[in-house]
Write a structure and sequence with these properties.
With about 250 residues, this protein is α+β, with helices and mostly antiparallel strands. It is about 75% helix and about 10% strand. The protein has five helices and four strands, in the order αααβαβββα.
């Protein structure tokens, strides 16, 4: 095969024309399209990178928010537990105080009941003792005991305080002042004379003596002068003993 310059030249020209046509009509638009595509890809990649950064930021923000929520939840739970524990302690203290108050009230009530029972038993004992003493004295009392009580009363009249004497002098009586003398046994003439002489010396007024017997006195005397009452009897002593038992 022989080399033909004209053919080679013609082929070269055809090739150059083809290259020019391709570059003019096809290669340049392809390059521009590739360039635009590249720009779009780069823009897409940039947007994707930005979106990825935003996603990472949102992820970090979400994780931080979750951690913050978890901390807040733990703090809230801890605070709630503290409040519940405080309320529980307060309720326990209040309940303990109420129980102590109830125990104190119950103890006080029991003490009062015991004291009342003891007081009642003591009162019954004193009353029984008073009744027993009254029965015993009724069986043993006699004129001799009454004479001793008369002498005791007369000795007390001899030692009567000055204010009592002044009170006797101040008794109101328009005419005659009655002196009522009660005894279990009749007084002797000498005893009556002693009483009349003594009261006449104590009271500077006209006197009238009234004598009577009262078995309820058991033994002794009772002298009533207006609002005054002088007692020297077992019945009066026993009644005072009974009153003491009521006040005990």
């Amino acid at each position: 095969m022989e080399f033909n310059l004209s053919t080679f030249t013609f082929e070269l020209i055809n090739f150059l024309i083809l290259v020019w046509i391709l570059q003019r009509l096809f290669y340049k638009p392809v390059r521009e399209m590739i360039k635009r595509r590249k720009q779009q890809v780069e823009q897409t990649l940039a947007e994707a990178a930005q979106m990825r950064q935003e996603a990472e930021h949102l992820k970090n923000s979400y994780e931080n928010r979750l951690q913050q929520w978890e901390k807040e939840k733990q703090v809230t739970i801890s605070h709630l537990h503290q409040q519940l524990e405080t309320e529980r302690q307060q309720k326990l203290l209040s309940l303990q105080k109420e129980l102590e108050q109830e125990r104190s009230k119950s103890h006080s009530a029991q003490q009062r009941q015991q004291q009342e029972l003891q007081r009642h038993q003591q009162t019954l004992a004193l009353q029984n003792g008073s009744r027993f003493a009254a029965i015993l004295l009724q069986q043993t009392a006699g004129p001799e005991l009454e004479t001793r009580l008369f002498n005791l009363l007369f000795s007390q009249l001899n030692q009567l305080p000055e204010d009592c004497q002044q009170s006797l002098q101040a008794l109101d009586s328009e005419k005659i002042l009655d002196i009522n003398v009660s005894s279990v046994y009749p007084l002797s003439t000498d005893q009556k004379h002693q009483l009349e002489e003594k009261f006449t010396s104590l009271i500077n007024k006209p006197l009238r003596f009234n004598y009577s017997q009262n078995p309820e006195l058991i033994a002794g005397l009772q002298i009533d002068i207006g609002a005054w009452a002088l007692h020297a009897s077992l019945q009066h002593e026993l009644s005072g003993f009974a009153e003491f038992s009521d006040d005990f």
